[in-house]
Inverse folding.
């Protein structure tokens, strides 16, 4: 036991040993809470003999869960086969619901275990449909706004009726209607969004005492990390899981509560003692991470908050370097400064043979672009957390939607996404008719397709295309069936494969093939040893079906029987049993060979993906497109198959694979080995780095403009600042730009120093060579204060330099698209040129150039001119041009790089987001 408690201070020890009853562990930044949690779990297992799998620990990110699991494993020496369950709230809820959601079904109505999980794009698609149905213009009420309100309501456990009753204006009433329609649509689609995962788990545990008691018996010890960031449903879930035993330990720090926009309620931690009167409160106040200067500076900022329990952190790491401050003339210069310092840091660390790690933290993702460009100029490799993740790429989302549909055909959003992707002749009119039909009959779109085919409700051409699509999904479903051979035979003979896990009543389509012009052929270039493609393919396929098996397998199938479009002349039942017997016999005669799946066994995940890639024609279409962009998409699709292979090796099913893809969050992308990491302040929580840059310290940017009028919002921003500052172990550098370009404006606008800068005592700050008048402000040595005519933070007064009146930025969201069309590009000369940086003759952005720039401070600085030398193509397309792409539709050119055949164009498309295209191949039409 002793070794578990070695290297622990008395409070940490208490946190480990106090395992019975409720415990509130108030753990300051860097005070070792992760250490306490892992040791507490190890102590329970090793010293108290508690069964490992009766411990449940809930963390904030998948990554934290994984790391915690590994650390516990190490501590207990891999002695126990059973493992504690360490999960995020969302993955815990998925687990509970996948197992027990059907306990909430009444008279066969309700969601099933194969429910889909909707991400933000799916949610937006549902909201757009709702807006359309309700006749609301999506320009007047943006889907994202409506979705934000719906999510807010859910996180506060308010249903559409309550929302409607509480609505104070017509807009809120509209949102209530949208909410109602959204909820119904998800239900119809057998789908849940992220918020629902929590809400439904709570509803389940409340409504079924049998289920709740089972979980209470199962999990006897409960640990919740980051408790300050729990919202109401998470809080209720915690109480339901804690049961009457109340062996619950919550760990948190009210000063690090930064998720109120997701409904997190700081009261949960502030009032834990009221909920559990027996609570033992333990405070961890010794910080092991940061130097005294950093801790003091961060403490001085957060001290200005009212909503806190109050802790005084201390450290034995006395002194340390001062907090660095750099005030740049503009955003580009700020980024160059950061890149320059990072280069120096990496070089010095390299000489000392240290493993350097540093982070650039910013308030919103859109700030990353300039820093990225600067790091590229310095040829410094970096790892960016957030932004465009693999799972958000259009082609990956498409393939995932195919998989979702295979898993849950009722998922009309997945269906809508891929029904005509790649193009297979199912047009907008067809889909609108089907959606109307679905709406008026209450059927899902999938079932509406089925009915349309049965009753021949659409033109033959459309029906044939729909039948082909439907067949593709059914075939993929059949591949997963455990009685695959039977399904295959029955299906081929025209009998529907019925999967009991999904309630849809399928029937063989009787689409006519009258329309000679319709291409019903499938792409069979990829074979798994079976196919339902056109007749001429069958004999080859059947032959391959015997991979590594009997050579005497009869390959002379009646090809016509496998063609869904061929009319059968025989009586249906006879045909079914004949084919069943035939296929089953073939499967039985084949012998299993190691490493090969026997025919008739369910397909593996990678096989399913390859099947969909090929049979859907997706890869073929991209190959035909032939652009570098298309080839990189093909690579992504292959990478998805690799991810599926990994998942398969971990024993994951299609459902768990999809759950995993749905639950991957930005933060999970963090790579602890990266030397330079860029991420938002939110994503940085829980991490630590020897060197940290906190950039964009400007009013309106940080604190964010949204919060300027809202005292509690401002307190949260301040906590975010505290979180950012306390990530630093040895060195913390704060930066700001005096002028910054905001969305859509030609000219950069003057900024005001963030009030958080002013809350840092000046005796702890060192100016790092900010050019121009900023220095004199710093050197005067007075304490800076916010407002009151104190001019110490450089040019707080925007018009001091003749730039017009003082303005706040208005960054409306975290959208990468909030970068103006006239923003700079890597190809243009940097603004530094106007500030005295020598033109780049040697290595771009080399240290000499930057040094000469810093050497130039004190010189008169002209108004920063950041206009981009506007590159224009032969077609006249330039930055800011409106264009149309044959596939992505309309968009705005955001950047143009290079010339001639090499010219690349980055376009922000309304529907498909940002795409980088090779101009030569892009077929862009100028609008
Ligand atoms: N008793 C201890 N002795 C020495 N180092 C410690 C001790 N406890 C924790 N540490 C170290 O202090 C650092 C911070 O610990 P940890 O990451 O567990 O803090 P935390 O409370 O989770 O921080 P935060 O809430 O700020 O993310 C780690 O590097 C950890 O190894």
């Amino acid at each position: 036991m002793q070794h578990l408690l070695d290297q622990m201070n008395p409070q940490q020890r208490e946190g480990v040993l106090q395992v019975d009853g409720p415990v509130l562990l108030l753990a300051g930044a860097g005070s070792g809470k992760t250490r306490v949690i892992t040791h507490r779990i190890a102590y329970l297992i090793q010293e108290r003999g508690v069964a490992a799998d009766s411990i449940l620990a809930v963390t904030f990110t998948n990554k934290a869960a994984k790391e915690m699991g590994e650390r516990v494993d190490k501590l207990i020496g891999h002695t126990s086969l059973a493992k504690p369950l360490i999960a995020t709230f969302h993955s815990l809820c998925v687990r509970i619901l996948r197992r027990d959601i059907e306990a909430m079904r009444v008279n066969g109505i309700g969601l099933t275990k194969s429910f889909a999980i909707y991400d933000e794009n799916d949610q937006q698609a549902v909201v757009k449909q709702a807006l359309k149905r309700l006749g609301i213009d999506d320009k007047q009420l943006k889907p994202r706004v409506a979705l934000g309100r719906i999510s807010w309501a859910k996180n506060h456990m308010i249903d559409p009726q309550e929302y409607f009753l509480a609505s104070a204006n017509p807009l809120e009433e509209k949102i209530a209607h949208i909410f109602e329609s959204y909820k119904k649509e998800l239900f119809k689609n057998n789908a849940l969004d992220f918020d629902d995962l929590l809400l439904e788990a709570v509803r389940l545990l409340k409504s079924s005492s049998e289920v709740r008691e089972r979980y209470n018996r199962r999990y006897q010890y409960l640990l919740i990390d980051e408790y300050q960031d729990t919202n109401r449903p998470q809080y209720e879930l915690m109480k339901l899981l804690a049961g009457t035993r109340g062996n619950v330990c919550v760990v948190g720090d009210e000063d690090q509560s930064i998720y109120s926009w997701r409904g997190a309620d700081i009261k949960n931690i502030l009032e834990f003692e009221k909920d559990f009167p027996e609570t033992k409160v333990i405070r961890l106040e010794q910080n092991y991470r940061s130097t005294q200067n950093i801790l003091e500076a961060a403490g001085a900022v957060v001290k200005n908050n009212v909503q806190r329990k109050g802790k005084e952190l201390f450290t034995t790491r006395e002194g340390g370097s001062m907090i660095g401050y750099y005030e740049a003339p503009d955003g580009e210069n700020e980024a160059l400064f950061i890149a320059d310092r990072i280069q120096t840091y990496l070089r010095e660390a390299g000489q000392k043979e240290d493993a350097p790690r540093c982070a650039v933290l910013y308030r919103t993702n859109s700030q990353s672009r300039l820093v990225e460009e600067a790091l590229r100029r310095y040829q410094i490799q970096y790892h960016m957390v957030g932004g465009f993740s693999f799972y958000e790429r259009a082609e990956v989302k498409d393939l995932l939607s195919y998989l979702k549909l295979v898993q849950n055909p009722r998922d009309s959003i997945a269906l809508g996404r891929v029904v005509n992707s790649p193009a297979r002749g199912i047009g907008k009119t067809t889909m609108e008719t089907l959606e109307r039909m679905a709406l008026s009959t209450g059927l899902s779109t999938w079932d509406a397709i089925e009915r349309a085919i049965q009753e021949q409700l659409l033109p033959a051409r459309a029906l044939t295309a729909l039948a082909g699509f439907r067949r593709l999904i059914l075939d993929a479903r059949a591949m997963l069936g455990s009685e695959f051979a039977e399904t295959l035979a029955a299906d081929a003979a025209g009998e529907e494969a019925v999967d009991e896990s999904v309630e849809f009543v399928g029937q063989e389509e009787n689409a006519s093939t009258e329309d000679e012009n319709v291409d019903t052929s499938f792409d069979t270039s990829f074979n798994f040893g079976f196919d339902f493609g056109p007749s001429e393919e069958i004999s080859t396929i059947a032959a391959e079906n015997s991979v590594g098996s009997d050579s005497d397998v009869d390959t002379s199938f009646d090809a016509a029987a496998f063609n869904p479009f061929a009319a059968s002349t025989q009586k249906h039942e006879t045909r079914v049993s004949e084919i069943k017997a035939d296929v089953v016999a073939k499967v039985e005669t084949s012998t299993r060979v190691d490493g090969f799946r026997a025919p008739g066994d369910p397909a593996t995940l990678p096989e399913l993906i390859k099947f969909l890639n090929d049979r859907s024609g997706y890869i073929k279409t991209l190959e035909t497109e032939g652009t570098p962009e298309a080839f990189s998409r093909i690579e992504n699709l292959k990478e998805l198959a690799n991810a599926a292979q990994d998942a398969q090796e971990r024993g994951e099913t299609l459902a768990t694979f999809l759950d995993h893809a749905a639950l991957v969050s930005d933060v999970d992308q963090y790579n602890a080995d990266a030397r330079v990491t860029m991420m938002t302040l939110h994503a940085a929580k829980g991490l630590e780095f020897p060197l940290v840059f906190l950039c964009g310290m400007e009013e309106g940017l940080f604190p964010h403009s949204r919060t300027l009028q809202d005292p509690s919002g401002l307190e949260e921003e301040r906590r975010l600042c505290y979180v950012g500052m306390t990530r630093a172990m040895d060195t913390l550098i704060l930066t700001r730009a005096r002028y910054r370009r905001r969305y859509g404006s030609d000219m950069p606008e003057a900024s005001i120093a963030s009030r958080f800068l002013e809350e840092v005592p000046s005796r702890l700050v060192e100016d790092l060579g900010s050019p121009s008048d900023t220095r004199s402000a710093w050197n005067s040595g007075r304490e800076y204060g916010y407002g009151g005519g104190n001019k110490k933070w450089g040019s707080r007064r925007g018009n001091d330099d003749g730039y017009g009146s003082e303005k706040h930025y208005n960054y409306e969201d975290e959208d990468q698209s909030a970068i103006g069309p006239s923003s700079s590009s890597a190809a243009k000369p940097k603004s530094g040129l106007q500030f005295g940086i020598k033109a780049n003759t040697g290595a771009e952005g080399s240290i000499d150039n930057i040094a000469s720039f810093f050497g130039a401070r004190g010189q008169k600085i002209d108004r920063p001119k950041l206009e981009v030398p506007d590159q224009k193509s032969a077609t006249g397309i330039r930055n800011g041009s409106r264009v149309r792409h044959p596939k992505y539709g309309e968009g705005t050119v955001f950047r143009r790089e290079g010339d001639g055949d090499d010219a690349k164009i980055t376009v922000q498309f309304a529907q498909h987001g940002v795409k980088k295209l090779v101009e030569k191949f892009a077929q862009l039409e100028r609008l």
